[in-house]
Amino acid sequence: MGKHGTANVGDFLCGFFVGEMVGSALSAFQIVHQREPTADEHLEIIELVESHSNEIKEFFAKFN
Hints:
Layout: H1 2-33, H2 39-50, H3 53-61
């Protein structure tokens, strides 16, 4: 695979994980509040997940 092929595994896993986290948080919001989040609430959820991006990247870097 080479250098780029293995680096992509960790990057893919990180991106997939972040996407799943945001999706799960949005679903949980809808269930708890019985409504769609506003645009501001949606951004707040994304920012919350992104605030942990360094830890997430470090974790998935183990798979490179």
